[in-house]
Amino acid sequence: MCPDGCASGFVGGDCLQTCIYGQTYGDNCGKYCASRHCINVWDSCALDTGVCSGCQQGWALPDCTACTYGQTYGDNCGKYCTSRHCLNARDSCATDTGACSWCQQGWALPDCTACTSGYYGSSCDQLCAARHCKSDSSCDVIQGRCMGGCTAGYQGTDCIQACDPGSYGKECSKSCRSRHCKTQSGTCNHTSGVCSDGCESGYKGEDCMQSCTMGMYGPNCARECSSRHCKPPSSSCDRETGLCPDGCEDGWTEIDCTRNCAVGFYGNNCSLKCSDRHCTSTSCLNDGACSAGCDMGWTLQDCTQECPRGTYGINCKSTCGHCADNNTCHHVTGTCPGGCQAGWQLDLCQTVCDNWKFGVNCETDCGHCNGTCDAVDGRCLWGCAEGYIGCHCSVKLGDIGGAELHMDSAITPTTAGIIGLAAGICFMLILVVGLYLGLVRQGRLQWLSSSEKDAVKVKETQVPVDKDTTQPSDNYPSISEQAGGRNIYNNDYAALDVEAKANSEYDVIKNQAYENL
């Protein structure tokens, strides 16, 4: 019995038994030759030391079973002291643990060769929290992989790399050039692709990739189709322009009919000027309506049209008078620009001639009538005053033929015949004139224009005797002759001439009367 144990290479109570050659060696034969890390696998295994001729890297002589101090450590001396990330570079390197007193950031004790929690990467310098994973994801210390993929705008295994320039969004699959921004650009925010200056008409969304929904249009789809003032109204429209195809309601303009007319304009497409109206007030609504009514002589709601023919004055409620040549009157004052028809007084031609006047504009004096004369043609409706004959009673008996009639006492038979015949003709003319005026007032005859009258006069020149002639006869004084302050009319002489030429019993009497004159 060996009280202090056996020598290296021996075993047993009496220390007489040797280690099994090639299998064990050392104290109490406690080491195995196979556990050595000899560089030459054929090295013998001495019973006492198991010494190798040389060791594999990281193992130390003599038997290559212990790590090389300061170089390797750990299981199978597989770790290198230089691979540690000790905060203090002078820390010793225990061959079993290689422990450091403290680690650099991102590395974990004991030997500072593995990433601490929340870090990953070959240098443990990547923060797991800095990744852009879609959801909470484990963070492997090697790659920091995001198991559910990346959020919009990022790519890569660990989702820390932004999209390449020109792309954005989920998995960086969208192109910046495909957006509908007001200002096109080949680059954009890699996360959202946001259009900083807004969207083109017809699109909306942060990246302007969404079309307007039904009923909306314009930049950022911010306008409602139903808010336009189209003609007719519509709740749907072109998503880009909001165009009103049939134009705008009065008082609105622009392609989508959303802007009021500028000050001073109104109406369809704001094409009418407020200053062209004839209103009694200055207000000018969208339709140009004159809220307080029109000036005299104007009509329509915007007071831009003169009174209709035949009317004038406030609200065109007054009726024109009897204007000459069937003309209408002035739409404001009611005056007849060409004068009145025969028998009516200036300026409005609505009052019949009076004060012994007749004819156009009542400018002619009546003859020597019993009572007043006809306002139109001046004929004496109730006969002549004593001593005058003719339809207008303007021929004085003593002036016929330019000579005096000498009567001793009573009127001679010849004179009486002449007077009777003249009175008969005047009566017939009065009946004709009355019938004529009645037909005119009933609308069955019309006043002739100046050109039409001229045509009629040409025809009348072919008639032997014109009862309305204004030229003096070769046998009678001119119309300018006066008799007792009254005008002597040629048609009065013409009437006498008709009497003289009539095929009646008065032919001889007439000739004798002229001989006596």
Word description of this protein:
The protein is an alpha+beta fold and 517 residues long. The protein has a domain at 373-516. 12% of the residues lie in helices and 13% in strands. The protein contains 4 helices and 34 strands. The strands form 17 sheets. Strands 1-2 form a two-stranded antiparallel ribbon. Strands 3-4 form a two-stranded antiparallel ribbon. It has a two-stranded antiparallel ribbon with strand order 5-6. A hairpin with a 5-residue loop joins strand 29 and strand 30. The radius of gyration is 67 Å and the shape is rod-shaped. The protein starts with 9 loop residues before the first strand and ends with a helix. 32% of the residues are buried. Mean pLDDT is 79; it is low at 401-416 and 447-517.
